[in-house]
Amino acid sequence: MARPFRPFAVTRAGPNDHLGVLLSTHATSVILAATEGHEGEGGFHTPSISDFFPSAILFEGTIFQIDRLWIIRIIATLVLLSIFVIAARRAKVVPGRFQTAIEFLLSFVRVQIGEEIMGKERSRRFVPMLTTIFLSILAFNLTGVIPGLNLAGTSRIGLPLVLALWVFVTYWAVGIRKHGLGGYLRSNLFPPGVPWPIYAILTPIELLQLLIIRPGSLMVRLVANMVAGHIILVLCFAATQFFVVDSAGTGLMFFGLLTLPAGIFMTLFEVLVAFLQAYIFALLAAAYINMSLEEEH
């Protein structure tokens, strides 16, 4: 018979166990005392959903309201456009390192996303769209790890929603153009080779997928990853600030030696996540468009 789980079971303790309890109790008391001492004085900053809704800077209370996140998006857009304008004007037959990096990104989207999913001929007309999606998301994601900006432009639902709707309209438009409205709905909602009674279950699911699940999977995944990344980074660096600076003299500086490397590691990890999320969004966009062009699904 398995032993029942007892989270507060009393066990026989040795002399070292008593010492460990005393030390852990003392450390907890010090941390709580330090936290209380800095409460309300700009000490430890706990991340919250309000970080993604900063105060308005211009046009407060209107549909044109501009806050810090909008300014971050504008900066990212201007930087991205400037990079490609400069690359286009300085293009040479023998590329330098800057031109090579730009051409690598463009080739990556064309080959690894477009041609890999849709084939060389079919992907040609959609490469500009996929490239715009990939580079825009990458630029907006990276603002979350840039000092002074520290907030991803995709961490609020509006921008991912616009990009997801672009993909949604595109795969419906190309599917209807090729198959007609009736043919497109029939091929998606009533896939061949399925017993008729199964359509009572399958057809509503397929309709839900066309209308909600596909665009929802694009925007929710992107927003969730950017929000989670921001919260983790704020926790690491706010904890470092608190332990090293705000709690000086309380014996908590040691913990800063743990939170600072963790923050640096998570920053590098967020750069990887920024690239992966841009890649996944563009990859799924290509897959959804390609499914609309297929004869059978």
From TrEMBL:
It holds the Pfam family ATP-synt_A. It is a multi-pass membrane protein. Belongs to the ATPase A chain family. The lineage of its organism: Bacteria, Bacillati, Actinomycetota, Actinomycetes, Micrococcales. It comes from the Bacteria. Keywords: ATP synthesis, Cell membrane, CF(0), Hydrogen ion transport, Ion transport, Membrane, Transmembrane, Transmembrane helix, Transport. The keyword Transport applies. Key component of the proton channel; it plays a direct role in the translocation of protons across the membrane. This is ATP synthase subunit a. The chain crosses the membrane at residues 70-88, 126-145, 157-174, 194-213, 222-244, 264-289. PANTHER family: ATP SYNTHASE SUBUNIT A. It is found in: Cell membrane; Membrane.
